[in-house]
Structures are given as structure tokens and as C-alpha cells.
Design goal:
Number of helices: 14
Strand content: 15-25%
Order of helices and strands: HHHHHHHHHEEEHEEEHEHEEEHH
Distance between the termini: 65 Å
Oligomer: single chain
Number of strands: 10
Length: 431
Amino acid sequence: MKALASLPAGVDEAFGLVERFDEALLSGFGRLGDEHRERLDALALVFASSPLGPAVAEAIAAIGRSEFISRYFLALASARVALLGAAHDALIAQAHEALGRTAPAGEEPPPLPPARSATALASVQQWLTELAIAGLKHLEETTVAPFAATLESLQADPELTGLAALLTGFSNELLRSIPASRQPALPGFRWGDLWSAGMVRTQQLPGASTFREAEGTLTPLGLDIQTHDNFACVLLYGVLDDGGEPRTVRIPFAGYKVDLIAGAGVWDLFEPYSEPILGALENHKTLRIAQAELRANGDLILRSPPKVGGLADPFAAAGLLSPLPCPPPLLRHPVHIAEPVRLPGDHGLPLAMERLAAGTELTESIVLEAPELLGLLRFDRGGWRVQPLCVRRQKDFLMSGEGLAGVRRKLKQHPLEILKERAGRLLRRKV
């Protein structure tokens, strides 16, 4: 891991340009000072010889004349996404070299058909443009709240789920921070990520990945759980043996929720898959997979609930770890790097414990005392870190998520059931 101690050439510079852009986004493009304008000119110089160069130069010149049109901000958002995408590629190449891996090729997404939800996507662009003009640290409720109607339209379109989830979290976070001018500190980098990702996805959404039929035995490696008040995303990492060469896969689950649904109660959203998956984690068992789609991006999409199999040995399976395919350009960002790794306890990298769900079995002391761990190699806070998934103990192992089944059984009330019951009462009253 010594090869990861320094960053590839150009990565620091890319982050510096992004940071200066985010300062302008926080301050507001409607109130740019000379210093901000000079920093935007530097951005134009970086892209001068690239395909984005003319669009970025035109946008910066026009904004300098106070011509605030959505397509100019789209060009700037694209430049920010491109900078972080280039940093992502350099970091992935560094990680693969350190691990002795070669990543399989990813897929290029198809362009977004212009007729699909065109009105809602145009409204997204206009709202994000208004945020940029006003400045994220100068927002008022009257700027953010009206977006709720557009957001509802996005949430109703299954093809726009990813964009809707992103903007749901972003708008809610902005509303919680109002008035932003009174906040002691603002997450400028994250807000810049959300703003630019939302803007470019009005032009191109992550396309549907190609897939092949898959069945076989999955050895779980652990859970990665990310939620906010209105959305939950859970990834089960594992090694799939389908009769060919075993490969590392992710089983994704995602869905909208309300803030009352949290912790182990989130798994009520993912029935009928929750019980066998949590049962396999709890009892250190494999999962027998049938009728699944193995997508080119490494996602294993279940069509039917898996069955619990025999005893699992994640550390034996980890000898067969393979790199996950590189994501399409739109999704390349250093924060999304998640390279499955098997490391000795003295690997020397900082731990990304903040990425683990609240109440996780893997406390920092347990991880530090473990002689060996399985985890995800991440890039965050300016350097490489490891998010633990599973640790070896003296006689067995401890895996992230293995205690969820027990916690779920002890729940006296399941918020999702209560909400469904209340909704049913309201509907019966109306009838």
C-alpha cells in the first residue's frame, strides 16, 4: 500500500480548480468579484484544447457579461464533472497498479432522448441555474421550495429515479440549511457535486447496462449502507461462482422512504429479499442465486429471492476478488471509487469508519485488532482510505450487516407497516 502514499500527477490541481469553482457557486454567479472571474478564466485555459473548450470559454465570457442562461451553466457543470472524472481515472489506475489488477472495460451510456420528460428536465435546469446565480450560501426558502412540484414529477418517472433521488436529497439539505448565511460552515464540495451532477444528468442519464442470465452461489463479503431521510441505498458485495470464473459483484437495493423508516426498518422496503439475505449474513451462509441479471457494470439484479445455502468463508472467496468494471463517464468521481480488497491488519491506510451505518458491528477497535480484513478501497479527504466490510477474528469472522436480522426481529413496531395501515384507514374513510 506504500504505492498509494502519494497522489498521481494532476489530481491535486484538478481538486484545486474544483474548489475554486465551488467558491463561486457558493458566492453566486450574480455577484462575482474580480478574484472569482480570474479563477474561472483559469478553468477556461485548462479546457482550451479539449472538446469542451469552446463551450466553457463561451459560458465564462457570457457569465462575465451577466448573461445567465441555463446552457452556460450546463457547460460549467460539465467542466466540473470532467475534472473529477479525470481525477477518478488517474486514481483508479494508481489503485489497480498497486493491487496488480486490470479493470474490465465499462460501457458508454446512450444519449438521453430529448422527448423523455423534457419539461421536467428543463425545469431542473432552470432551478439549478437560479441556485447558481443566487449563490448557495445566499439561498432563501422562496428559491428552493418551489422546486417541490418538479421534484414530484421526477419521482413519478421510473427512468428518472437516480436523478430524482439525487435532487430529493439536495433540495431537502438546502431547505434544512436555510438561511445558509447563518450556518457556521457549508459543505461546498458536496453541494458542488450535487449541483453539477444534477445539471449534467438533465442531458444524459446513466444508461441501462447490458446483462446476461446468471445463477450460482454467492459468498457475501458485507453490506455498504447509505441512506438519507428520503432515500435508502444498500449494496451487498460478494463473490459469485456461476460455474465460470468467480467474480466480484454488487447486489443493489434502493428505494424512497420517509425519515421514520430508519435502521433495521429500512429492510422492510426490500421484501421479499430481506429475510434470506439478512439470514445468510447472520448465520455466515452463502446465497443460492437463480434467475438473476449479471450486468456489465458488476451489478447482480435479483429477479427472485435467493435461498440460504451452506457455510460461507468470505476470506477464502476473497482470494478470487476481481476489480469491478469502470463506470460510465457520467458516474466517474473519486467519491464513488469502491475497489474490493483483502488486506492484512497492518495495511497502514486510514479507516473510513464514517461510511459505516450507525450501530454497525464493526467498531473501530474491533477493526484495528483484526489480523486481516476485507473492505472497499476508497478515496476521500485527499487520500486513500479503507471502508471495512468483514474482519477475521480468532476462530471466525465478523461481517457488516450480520446483526441486522436480530435487530429487525426485536423491533416492536415496523414504521412501514404502521404507515401502510394509516394510509389504508384514510383511503377507507374517503370511500
